[in-house]
Structures are given as C-alpha cells and as structure tokens.
Amino acid sequence: xxxxxxxxxxxxxxxxxxxxxxxxxxxxxxxxxxxxxxxxxxxxxxxxxxxxxxxxxxxxxxxxxxxxxxxxxxxxxxxxxxxxxxxxxxxxxxxxxxxxxxxxxxxxxxxxxxxxxxxxxxxxxxxxxxxxxxxxxxxxxxxxxxxxxxxxxxxxxxxxxxxxxxxxxxxxxxxxxxxxxxxxxxxxxxxxxxxxxxxxxxxxxxxxxxxxxxxxxxxxxxxxxxxxxxxxxxxxxxxxxxxxxxxxxxxxxxxxxxxxxxxxxxxxxxxxxxxxxxxxxxxxxxxxxxxxxxxxxxxxxxxxxxxxxxxxxxxxxxxxxxxxxxxxxxxxxxxxxxxxxxxxxxxxxxxxxxxxxxxxxxxxxxxxxxxxxxxxxxxxxxxxxxxxxxxxxxxxxxxxxxxxx
Length: 405
Hints:
The protein is of the alpha+beta class. The chain has helices at residues 9-27, 68-86, 89-103, 130-135, 137-147, 150-166, 207-215, 218-234, 258-263, 265-273, 276-292, 316-333, 339-351, 385-401; strands at residues 55-57, 62-64, 127-129, 168-169, 174-175, 178-180, 185-187, 253-254, 303-304, 369-370, 381-384.
C-alpha cells in the first residue's frame, strides 16, 4: 500500500478555500433575527447571529435550520483547522462569530441549577439533545487553543459539568438523550421506542477525555472509559452500533456518521491508555466505512447492515467523516491501506462541490445529496451544511498532515 493520498493538492486546497468561503460568507447568519429563513423545527433560540444556516433547498432557494448549535460547533472546528492551513484571519473571525452564537445560547447565570447548559435544540423545539451539546464543544476547545482566549474553553468545561451532572447514568455508560426546557428535566426521547435502553453511549469527539486533560477531573476520565467499555460491549455489526438511535435495528439501517462519532474516539482511548482493544475497534469502524464506500467514492445515507443501499440519497458528510477517521488511523498505525479510500472520498467531495453555479447561495457548498425524482424539472439538490463542514475538516487534515501526493 502507498503512503500518500493520490489527489491534486492544489485542487484540494482550492476546494478548501471555496468551502470555507461558503461557510463564512453564505451560510453564516450575519443578523441576530431571522429574516427569510424558515425555522421548521421551531427552535427556541433567542439569538441567531453567528449561527450556520444548515439546510438549503435549491429548487426553492429556501434556507432552514436543523440543530444549529452542534453544526455551528463543528463549523468552528473546521474553520480553525482550515486557518492552520490557509492562514486567513477571516476564518478565525468567522469562528468567533460562531462561538458568539453558542455563547448567547447557554445558561450563563452561575446561580441557576442548569448553569453551563448549552441549548442544543435539534428536532424538538424546546428539547436539548445531549449529543448536540457534546458535539458543539470540540470547536470551542479548538478556538480557545487557536486564540488563547480561555472563555471558549470555559464554556465547554461548564457544559461538560452540566452533562455529567444532569444527563449521565453512572455505572451504565449511557447518557439520557433529551432535556426539556419546558419542564427543566430529562424527558424520554421521541425515538426512545427504537432502542431498549434508557440512553446512549455518547463518546462523541472524546470531549470528556479532553475535559479531563484540561481540568484534571479524574471523574471525567473514568466516565469516558465507562462509555468506551459500554461501546465495546454493544458493538454490532463490527465497527458500528446499530442497536442505538439514529440507527434502526428493525430495518437494518445504519446512520452514516454513527461509526465516526463512536469509532473515532476509540483512537483517543488507545492513545491515552495504550489498550489495543480500542485501536482494534477504531480499525473495525474504518473497515466498515471501506465496505460502505461506493465506487464513486461516496456513501449512501440509506446504507444497511448487509451493505445494500437505497438508490438515491448520498450522504457526503458521512464519507467526509470517514476520511477524517482514515487519516487519523493512518497517523497512528502508519498503515497505507487507509489512504486509498481517503483519496476516493476527497475526490468525491470535490466533485460534489458547486464551483460556478448560477445561484450564489450554492458557490462553494458541498452537495449532501440528490433527491429522488418527483416527476418535475425542479432542481433535485439538497444542501446541508454538514457536507461542507466535514469536507473542510477532512481536507484541512489531509493537507496539514503531509500525505497529499
């Protein structure tokens, strides 16, 4: 196996620039109030400045939102990573705007019982998803390190403390999924009937391990490993976790980012502990993505346990996440097997990027999926911010790590 990713480095660099410009100049909110944007989920945010507009239907030229808290957190991470490659200060400025959105949507009164809670509304207008809170934090850690401003780190630390105190089920390695801001207590998720557990083993981005390193809180390190052990117990199929939502064991459906959120932090567990079981688990997740990857380098959102797929509906964000995992597997193992699928994935993302569209809202965006035919000539494009966000993370990591041929 080769030791480089076979892709045009200049083309990838330009794709990264374009993707970042879409995030900063097109997708990011520049006002504090909604104007032409829809808010289909009735998310109860009081402030919108700096948020990433996450959904765009090209046929209608209509913007919408879906969990802007964690999407914006991941966009912050992408912009900071891209800044390390491109050196453009505009990227850090936009990342700070994104952090301002998160900061304006948190419980900041230290006298309140829910101090530190970040209002990660997703698919329930007044319900905070625990995963949405956790997935918003790594960007704050990245931004704090890049700027030297501890404020962002402190917001993340306070959020971890809230999650550990209010949503974790000690001894089970699980977090309750939903916290209602109507009752100010945990409530059953509307997806709860799809899994026989009171919560999920959320190890997303390894943020509790990062929190431990920043604070010395041994309880958070213990929590991280308790969740990691639960994931090893529940793994099905190899490298994935179909027993937990948003996967669906009854239908065999596997969500395109499940193995990323829960397989990638196993590399962090291995690096911290030296326990080979975690490395082998991460490798299984990497191999799952290799089997799921299609010949064009992409991945279908509708991928099933036997690797059959739906006929429409790519999930470009999923294959970009796979590229991040493969690159990190290569960095840790030195095994060249991870680089060929990485190159295919990045080339697919570049092919899915709008470079010269007639609609200015599309320029630089990475298309998430093509919608099934509906019998009309309407544009079949569905743009989600996540395709561009995770492509930018993957492209920046590939360019920075020196593996581009």
